[in-house]
Amino acid sequence: MAQGSIRRVVIAGGGTAGWVAACALTHQFRDMLEVTLVESEQIGTVGVGESTIPTIRTFHRLLGIDEREFMSSVAASFKLSISFENWLRPGHNYFHPFGLTGLGTWAAEFHHFWLDSRRRGLTSELGDFCLETVASRVDRFALPNHQGDGAQQWSTRWANQAMSPDRLEVNYAYHFDAGLYAAYMRERAERQGLTRIEGRIRQVRQHPESGFVEALELDNGTVVEGDLFIDCTGARAVLSEQTLGTGYEDWNQWLPSNRAVALQTEAQGPAVPYTRAIAHEAGWHWKIALQHRIGCGIVFSDAHMSDDEATARLLAENPARALRDPWIIPFRTGRRRKAWNKNVIALGLASGFIEPLESTSIHLTLSGVARLLKLFPDDGIDESMVQRYNDISRAEMEHVRDFIILHYHLNQRDEPLWQQVRNMTLPADLAHRIQMFRDRAHASQGEDELFRLDSWTHCMLGQGVVPKAHHPLARTLADADLKRLFDGIRQPIDRAVAAMPTHQQFLDSYCKAPPSAWELMYERARKHASVTGRIAGVGGGLAR
Question: In principle, which of 189, 270, 305, 329 could form an S-S bond with 504, CB 3.0–4.6 Å?
Answer without folding.
Answer: 270
